Amino acid sequence: MSDGAIVVSDLSKRFRIYHQRSETLKEMLVDRRRSRYEEFWAVKDIDLEIHDGETFGIIGANGSGKSTLLKCMAGILIPDRGKVAVRGRLASLLEVGAGFHPDYSGRENIYLNGAILGLPRRYINSVIDEIVGFAELEQFIDNPVRNYSSGMYTRLGFSIAIHMDPDILLIDEVLAVGDESFQRRCMDHIEGMRREGRTLVFVSHAAESVRRLCDRCLWIDHGVQRALGVTGPVVDAYVGEVNQHEMEALRQAAAGAGASEAGWMGVRLTSLTFTGEKDQASSARTGSGMTVAVGYEAPGPLHGVRFRIAFYPAGQDVLISTQTDDSELGTRTIPASGTVRLAIPQLPFLDGVYGAKVEILDIASGRQYVEIDRPQSFRVQGAGRRETGMALLGHTWEVPLMDPTGAGV
Amino acid sequence: MLGIGWTLLNPLVFMLVYAAVFGALLKVQGPSGKSYLVFLLCGLLPWTFFQQALVMAASSIIANAGVVRKVAFSWMLLTVSTVMAALVNFLISLVLLVPFIIFTKSPVGLPLLAVPGLVIVTFGLSLGLGLMLAAGSVYFRDLQYIINLATMVWFYITPVIWPFTKYEGFFHHGKLGLIFKFIIYANPMTWVTLGFQDIFVFNRWPQHWHGLLYTVVLAAVLIYFGMRVFRRLRRRFAEEI
Question: Is A200 exposed, middle or buried (0-12, 13-18, 19+ CB in 10 A)?
């Protein structure tokens, strides 16, 4: 009917969630225990055709069913309804190093993995040096893999999978392995596979890597198709919704949070808000203004205190930290309660969710009165800018252009 | 190198212990004045293979949960290779049997040609049952322990340590005898064991060919159903394991 590399028709897969499970014959026969379970559809009515030579992405939040769909394509899970037709030799990289035997050496594991994937020994002999070289394990290849570091382990697993010469390669969220240089080489290799006309299927919740790699993609949500088509619009729609959810979550968090327990000397923080332009709570745009307001309360007036606020991208190190001027506040007293405001006229942060850590300290002793750390404090919207990374850089570009007369420079 | 050393050492020590106990310490007489040691060993070796194969097969899938969950390939190979590994051990132990035969001056000859046939039948029985156990263990974890118990009992209803001919008369004593007869005749390992004993102890072609025919058919049926059960149950391996 069609000549796609992978044709998924009307595929549904349900799982059992056991409330009570008889895992043993004894329970079933002696105790007459019956398993009680609920069924839930992890993937429902998915229709999909992945063309030959295409790089295809599957995106969705955690638990949306994307890995289940991929496992059905790989033949690990058998769908309850519908079917998957695969044309060509398929290799899947669902987990780096799955199937490694810890006691075998790296070299033996390469052969073992190859055998599992159905490759003749002769073929592996011809690529083993490449595999070892790519994984940068020349020195350790004859040591048992149980002694490998996690980095070495993942590099070897990845290297094996991409050298197995598949027509179709399924990859599940494993691209973020190894160090920077290894990742770059993985990307290069994947680019090479694309150019050779291999079919690649990626599963990821990282919108940016899907955007960078994939021609088309599927957005799946709670097991159901939300959008399918050219990557750009699908990823935009997905990111849009994720942002919206995030915003709601942040707003809810902001409504309740911000108050801390009483710290040293009974000082506590009563509120913490981030306000962007147009009074948008917990949301701001790159390059526009944002105000941070910190409410505090103490048993009495405070003398010689320092306020400090540190910003960091969610889950990463501090990007910028700033504190009040000690020479000014060191000799002064502030009221027992009030609000401290930090105004940022031009927010230098790029697209993402940022956390903030707020501290009040005693300048004289350096001791901390109180601290609050909110890993998800506000969302910065900066998508569509030409910069990527974390912080805005004031800059101009100068590029040599051809003279319209054709004389050059 | 050590790996091969261990595979040889295990059956060798096992056989030497039996030789010491039954050859030197307990002067047990074998059937019709034959060596009890050879009688015992040639029944014990196929039995050990059968038992090892079943016990190892039962855990062959669960022990590789990581692979089954993440790599798509013919998972049946995990079980088949396990039974094959037990088979290799068995073949090695059969070779090690040679010095014992020479030492006890047991005459052997042309009937040895029937050994491969018996080996294949035993392998078939092990594989068929092994496949069912391997697939079943994914759903019922205690199957591994049950099979340990079951083979313990099974051992005694197989004429390995007791000479079949000596107790044959008992089968005609009333109802109990009949029940025993039924159990022992239905046990395919009975006929395999008797076959090995015919060859190595009595130097004759396997006599109980009715029983052997039954065993061959049973092995074929077990393999057929073993594969069917496995194929049926493997559909939810990755979820249940």
Answer: buried
Most distant CA atoms of chain A, gap in Å? 94
Query: What pTM was computed for the model?
Result: 0.74
B67–chain A nearest CA distance, Å: 5
Q: What is the DSSP letter of A316?
A: S
Enumerate the residues of chain B whose CB falls inside 8 A of the CB of residue A78: 235-236
Q: What percent of chain A has pLDDT over 70?
A: 92
Q: Model confidence over A390-407: pLDDT tens digits?
A: 788 888 889 988 877 655
Q: Maximum CA pair distance of chain B?
A: 58
Cα–Cα dist B166/A23, whole Å: 44
pLDDT tens digits for range A46-58: 999 999 989 999 9
Hey, how many other C-beta atoms are within 10 angstroms of the C-beta on B170? 13
Mean pLDDT across the stretch B228-238? 92
Q: Give the pLDDT confidence of B9-42 residue by residue, as tens digits.
A: 888 888 888 888 877 777 777 777 788 888 889 9
For an interface test with A, give the residue of B2, B62, B70 to mutate (most A CBs within 10 A). B70
- Over residues A4-15, the mean pLDDT reads 90
Closest residue of B to A22, CA-based? Answer: B140
Decide if A26 and B142 are in contact by the 8 Å CB cutoff: yes
**pLDDT of residue B46 exceeding 80:** yes
Tokens of A72: 């059905």
Chain B contact present for A193, CB below 8 A: no
Token readout for B80 is 């088949």
Asked if the C-beta of A83 comes within 8 angstroms of chain B's C-beta atoms, the answer is: no
Q: Least CA distance to B64: which residue of chain A?
A: A99
Say how far residue A133 (Cα) sits from the centre of its chain. Answer: 28
Q: Does the structure's ipTM exceed the value 0.85?
A: no
The SS3 of residue A408 is: coil
Q: Which residues touch A168 (CB under 8 Å, ≥6 apart)?
A: A5, A6, A86, A88, A89, A90, A91, A198, A199, A200, A201
Output the six-digit token pair for A38.
């609920």
What is the spatial distance between Cα A294 and Cα A58, in angstroms, rounded to a whole number?
41
A102-141 residues labelled b (16+ CB within 10 A) or e (exposed): eeebbbbbbbbbbbbbebeeeebeebbeebbebbbbeebb
* Residue contact B239–A117, C-beta within 8 A: no
Query: Between chains, do A76 and B235 touch, taking CB under 8 Å as contact?
Result: no
